[in-house]
Amino acid sequence: MHYVYIIFSESLNRFYVGETIDLNKRLAEHNEGIYTRSYTKKAQNWKLFFTIGCESKTQAIQIEKHIKRMKSVIYIKNLKLYPEIAERLKEKYN
Fold first, then answer.
1. pLDDT digits over 41-82, tens only?
2. Any long-range contacts for 55-59 (C-beta under 8 Å, 24+ apart)?
3. Among residues 65, 67, 72, which one has the least CA distance to residue 85?
4. How many CA atoms lie less than 13 Å away from 46 in the CB half-sphere?
5. Number of domains in the chain
6. Which domain CATH number covers 63?
């Protein structure tokens, strides 16, 4: 199973959206700062905010891109508040 994940850093007050097959490993990697080309290296306090389980890597990448195109903190917060949004995304990119 692949996942779209959203992490949040309190010190940066920023969200980051990504795709992975291993949530725990990816979160640890963000907190260790190994992604040198990512702004996630600027903080070591990333916490998992929300995840969407996907049927395939292709679906996960499409949903990740959709969320990033929205460029909206409100949209990200609404994903957590209203799980039906994530379900609709999974149907749309099935």
1. 889 999 999 999 999 999 999 999 999 999 999 999 999 999
2. 55/1, 55/2, 55/90, 55/94, 56/2, 57/2, 57/19, 57/21, 59/2, 59/90, 59/93, 59/94
3. 67
4. 28
5. 1
6. 3.40.1440
Q: Which own/partner pairs from 14-22 qualify as long-range (CB within 8 Å, at least 24 positions apart)? A: 14/39, 15/49, 15/73, 15/76, 16/40, 16/46, 17/64, 17/67, 17/68, 17/76, 18/64, 19/57, 19/60, 19/61, 19/64, 21/57
Range of the domain at 37: 2-92
Q: C-alpha angle 90/10/1, rounded to 5°? A: 25
How far apart are the C-alpha atoms of 89 and 82, rounded to whole Å?
12
Read off the pTM.
0.94
